[in-house]
Specification:
single chain; 98 residues; mainly beta; Jelly Rolls; 1 helix; globular
């Protein structure tokens, strides 16, 4: 799959696109424009974020991680997770429901 062909960004809000759904997990592509944010919030599953493009800060639990391309951030089940975008970001969210 060529991610450049499926990526979509909006000037109004972050966009999330489901790429692959499997039993127990799925992979989503998230795109944010500079200044956009996904406020920290808990979810009932673990996730690993892989930054493909851009720069910003990813919240994992109580920690804030400055990120740029090829950084990974892991967030545990029921922990807060959020994304603050400083430079247009494209990232994968790999969700684990196990």
């Amino acid at each position: 799959m060529d991610l450049q062909k499926v990526v979509e960004c909006s000037p109004d809000n972050p966009l999330k696109k489901d790429l692959i759904r499997m039993k127990g997990s799925n992979i989503v592509l998230v795109c944010l424009q500079a200044g956009q944010e996904i406020a920290p919030h808990p979810e009932p599953y673990a996730v690993v974020f892989v930054v493909l493009q851009g720069e910003g800060v990813i919240t994992a639990g109580s920690a804030r991680h400055p990120v740029k391309p090829l950084h990974l951030v892991s967030v545990g089940k029921d922990e807060n997770r959020g994304v603050q975008c400083d430079q247009r970001m494209m990232l994968l969210g790999i969700r684990d429901d196990v």
